[in-house]
Design brief:
It catalyses: Exonucleolytic cleavage in either 5'- to 3'- or 3'- to 5'-direction to yield nucleoside 5'-phosphates. The chain is mainly alpha-helical and 95 residues long. The protein is 59% helix and 6% strand. The chain has helices at 20-36, 41-79; strands at 3-5, 11-13. α1 runs antiparallel to α2 (41-79). It is rod-shaped. 3% of the residues are buried.
Amino acid sequence: MEEKKDGTGAQFADIEGMSFKEASTELEQIVRRLESGELELEESMTLYARGVELLKSLRARLANAEQKVQVLLDTTESAQVTDTTAAPSTAFIDE
């Protein structure tokens, strides 16, 4: 996994090279660190920016996955054609 440095010299893994799980885990860790209140302002800003980038990537990946699922559902629904030749029609039967 390739690592990149930001303007402050912090090293981060390339987001696009991360799995969804890895990106999600890193975002959770960032949120915990920011909520701890123990970071210096500069580090907080760096982590916040990283978190925003991770969140954008995760949202885009989810939207892509949802679109793929919808395409699969649409394909499945359109493939389900009722077979009207299997049963005799009762519309014209005189009882």
